Amino acid sequence: MILKPRLEDLKIIGYYLGKIILGLALTMTVPIAIGLGFGEINPTLDFVLGIIISTICGYLLTVFCFTEKDMNWMHGMIVVSLAWLAAMVLGAIPLYLSGHWKSFLDACFDAMSGLATTGLVLVQDLDHLSYAHNFWRHFIMFIGGQGVVVVALSFFVKGMSGAFKMYVGEARDERILPNVINTARFIWIVSLTYLVLGTLALGLVGIWEGMRPMNAFFHGVCNFMAAFDTGGFTPQSQNILYYHSFLYEIVTIMIMILGAINFKLHYHIWTGNRKEVFKNIETVTLFITVMVTFGIVAVGLTQVGIYPNAEGLFRKGFYQLISGHTGTGFQTLYDQQFMSDWNHLAIVGVIIAMALGGAVCSTTGAIKMLRVGVIFTALGEDIKRIIMPEKAIVVKKFHHIKEIFLEDKLARSALMITLCYLVLYILGAFAGTFYGYPFLDSLFESTSAAANVGLTCGVTSVGMPNGLKVVYIFQMWAGRLEFLSIFTLLGFLFAVFKGKK
Amino acid sequence: MRKNILQISGFLALMMLPIALYAQPLSVAEIIKNVKSFDGKTITFEGEVIGDVMRRGNFAWVNVYNYDDALGVWMSASLAAGIDHTGSHRETGDKIEVVGVFHRACPEHGGDMDLHAQGLRRISCGTLIPNVPSRKKRNFIIFLLGAFIVLWIFTRSKRS
After folding, report:
1. For chain B, which residues make up each domain, given as ranges?
2. Is the ipTM beyond the 0.95 threshold?
3. Shortest CA distance to B63 belongs to which of A261, A484, A334?
4. Domain B24-124 classified CATH 3.40.190.10?
5. What digits encode the pLDDT tens for the residues A2-40?
6. For residue A309, which residues of chain B lie inside 8 Å, CB to CB?
7. How distant is the Cα of A93 from the closest Cα of chain B, in angstroms?
8. Which of A29, A315, A373, A449 is the most buried (most CB within 10 A)?
9. Does A19 touch chain B if contact means CB atoms closer than 8 Å?
């Protein structure tokens, strides 16, 4: 029997949601500072409006839903799923006010794309967008990549048990440090350290390649946030192709890979345990899957014969592949070139890479390497059981920070989430086909949205049907939160309407 | 004789047609749609210069935007020197017409789709975009701030 939620449940959810919204409002002070610094008056006003509206919403929720009770698991999951929707709507306000988005839905699409570190865009005339708005687009990737809730956990939420429930709801179940708030702060320290180093590297390369210093560093900080958070937005409409620079592409590849590895692994690297990189099941699996999918892409592109030399194959084939596999979405091709210049074999290679993703507890999306590694290890174990004598006991371990026994429960959990992702990819592909797009194009775009990648073959465009925009928004949201908090929200809504008192 | 002249004229006109076609400014979408026929050919491309003019030794990369997308143009530094304004939030860039060889996957530039400029003509100069504060937005901010202050006072007084 499903029980109807009580008023107390609604108040708990509303109160903590309000706190997170207040935290989000505070983040808008950064683009305000950027706008004032560059003398961009109207963009500054857009963010002032955004911050006031967000503050009013957050304040109303914290006042009218005030409670001293802590969250349980259900509350934590629901707060997370709603917080992401609230962040999308509130984050879209300054974007829409800029006049560069055709509709509020388009602005919400880009806001969710940023927060979910996807990178699909509907912005118009990006090359004339203000510094303030452009920075905001990349900053929400930084916030979303770390975790909207992680931001709040780091600075605003008191009380530890509720904090952990929200942390898990945001698809982060790895504890790097014993205390989840310290874990959240560690993630920030790593990210901010890399931010400084990455911005410096990209800025200096930009100047070397002929950019003006101010633009070089502005692009550097934006592209770092997009690369490390495996988002894929860039300040210009041509994406990474704008720079026409092999060196720039190499630096972004390094940052993308850093962003795609587990923050726990970053902790071990930082504390001197570098052997973990070679032993960890995720890094080993990532290496294998990158090699296999690049092999598929390389064979496909060689059949087409479009790139005249190894440099072209690397800068186009490997770049798009690693961008897709890490879930970043940086492109050095025009959207339509995927379907016009590549053959189906190469495109399928990229789709598989996008579908697999990077490490758990990283900024990337999709199925993730730990699950892929566990599934294949479990498959190997089952094959061994069949081959070995009946009385033999087969016990399998794998290394992920420590030695872990491969239990059935672990394999089942990995398979369940993998199945959810595969269903999401297929459903999105059907939606695209329903709206008249070819199946392969639809599958490419759907996988890109649900796996939070951002590579596009041209389906995502301003002229796309609104229904498909909503489908992709849902896919980006569900893919980023890894379903659990979404299912909890849906169950909660069902209980609100159909539950017994 | 007259028939011969007409035939020769007709033949010459037909020969000129492809040149004339490629002499019409193209959009990036059109180029991509017909990429195989344009690959290695001389085309005319027209649009606004955006971002930075990225000088690299004796050459420069200039990204030119028209209709729907931008195309990278590789040109000599002397041609690039003729560009004064580049498009950004605060100004529109120079509108230029470039004639050059189009590459679908340039062997010199790592497979980039690009245009190697042979000639450049500035059609119009870029201009500053006015930066006038919006009265509507300012008034709405004042209204919302006022509403928030009232709300805050009301909730505080209710609590006490």
Report:
1. 24-124, 133-160
2. no
3. A334
4. no
5. 778 888 889 999 999 999 899 899 999 999 999 999 999
6. 107
7. 12
8. A449
9. no
